[in-house]
Amino acid sequence: ALFGYGAPGFGFYTPSVAWAYNGGAHVPPLDRARARALLAEAGARRELELVVPAFAPVDEIGGLLRDQLAGIGLAVRVTVLPLNDWSDRVIRRQDFDLTLMSGRHGPDPENLSFRFGSRTAIPNLGYANPELDAALAAGAATVDLEQRARSYYRAQEILARDLPIAPLAEAVAVTVFRSNVRGLPNAEGLGLVPTHDFSLVRVRP
Question: What is the pTM of this model?
Answer without folding.
Answer: 0.83
